[in-house]
Amino acid sequence: MLRIIIAAVVALIAAAAPTQAQDWPTRPLTLVVPFAAGGAFDVMARVFTPPLSQILHQQVIVENMGAAAGIVGTNRVAKATPDGYTFLFGTIGTHAFNPALYKKLPYNALTDFVPVALIAEQPMVLLTRKDFPADTLPQFIAYVKANAAKLQYGSAGIGSTTHLGCALLNSAAGINVTHVPYRGGGPVMQDLIAGQVHYMCSNSAGALPQITSHTLKGIALLARSRSPFLPTLATAHEQGLADFEAITWNAFFMPKDTPAAIVKKLNDATIEAMNTPALQDRMRELGVTLVAPERRSPEYLQTFVESEIEKWGTPIKAAGISAD
After folding, report:
1. With helix as H, strand as E and coil as C, how does 116-151 read?
2. pLDDT tens digit sequence for 220-242
């Protein structure tokens, strides 16, 4: 009799799963941004929440968990109930850098998540205080080498994209400067503007408004080719660091075992949001490039993450960068 009861319960659960996926969502969703409020990634995530809320007919609420290079927030999603109501605003840091930086990472970037959609890419920018005595990358490198002992660069935290972008730049340029980690992109940007640190490597979404308002000085785009959003800013490649680039990306992920039907619904909603003129206009204002339609599927994102882990693991280890 007990076996019959257990079998009946299992059958009911199995039958209910497709129905639950079909009805999803029936309540608000939480988008975990594993970084502090006010930073570039937080701004980007919040651009998506209004159209997603409208398309899904449920409010999408941003939850900021800015600590430990995104590990805390990312792990929160990895351990969340896979019912479709919690998803992650993932980054190159959470899913490509961290596996190389941490030997005891509490989540597995490949197996603890279901990929939903690759969203956007953006080159990083070398930013300095507006009174920094250099206007080009060669001038910057020469000045920093001569004054390294009294200079500091800031980042959103150890192992963050802003840390690794500058760490790799420093390594490529042959300079050694004290690193000051903050708890998020917003605080380090504020202190750079205030003159408390001398430079940082920011995502273009955070750099663009500071450069256009002349609050900070853009020295180089950390990419091989120029950006249409900052067409007058020369690249590091153009300024002598051949083939150097630091390009970040963002994507949505759900916890592993999230039903495929729910993943497809969120992927469809994300693509629909990306196709709205209002979101496209806002992303252009931020200096962010939405990825091409053929790169927006869950299958593409899975393969992409695998390649990014391999791509970044070698230079991070070669540069001797570790967060353990």
Report:
1. EEEEEEEEEEEEEECCCCCCCHHHHHHHHHHHHHHC
2. 999 888 888 889 999 999 999 99
Question: What integer is the mean pLDDT of 283-295?
Answer: 90
pTM of the model: 0.77
Helix, strand, coil percentages for the chain (3-state, nearest 5):
50, 20, 30
For 3, residues 6+ apart whose C-beta sits below 8 A from its C-beta are none
For 180, list phi and psi in degrees, rounded to 5. -115, 105
User: What are all long-range contacts of 263-268, with beta carbons under 8 Å and residues at least 24 apart?
Assistant: 263/84, 263/114, 263/116, 263/298, 264/298, 265/21, 265/24, 265/56, 265/84, 266/56, 266/84, 266/87, 266/116, 266/117, 267/116, 267/117, 267/296, 267/297, 267/298
Cross-strand pairs, 261: none
- Both structure tokens of 11: 């059958």
| Residue 32 three-state SS | strand
The burial class, CB within 10 Å (0-12 / 13-18 / 19+), for 242 is exposed
Determine contact, residues 162/155, Cβ cutoff 8 Å.
Answer: yes
- Cβ atoms of residues 184 and 39 within 8 Å: yes
Instruction: Phi first, then psi: give them for residue 132, nearest 5 degrees.
Output: -65, 135
DSSP annotation string for 168-193: HHHHHHT---EEEE-SSHHHHHHHHH
pLDDT in tens, 268-283: 999 999 999 999 999 9
Best CA proximity match to 125, nearest among 282, 242, 240, 230: 230
- Mean pLDDT of the residues in the chain: 90
| Beta strands 247-255 and 199-203, pairing class | unpaired
* Structure tokens that stand for 54 in this block: 């409208």
Q: Which helix (H) or strand (E) holds 201?
A: strand 199-203
For residues 258 and 80, the answer to whether their CB atoms sit within 8 Å is no
Q: How far apart are CA 245 and CA 223, in angstroms?
A: 4
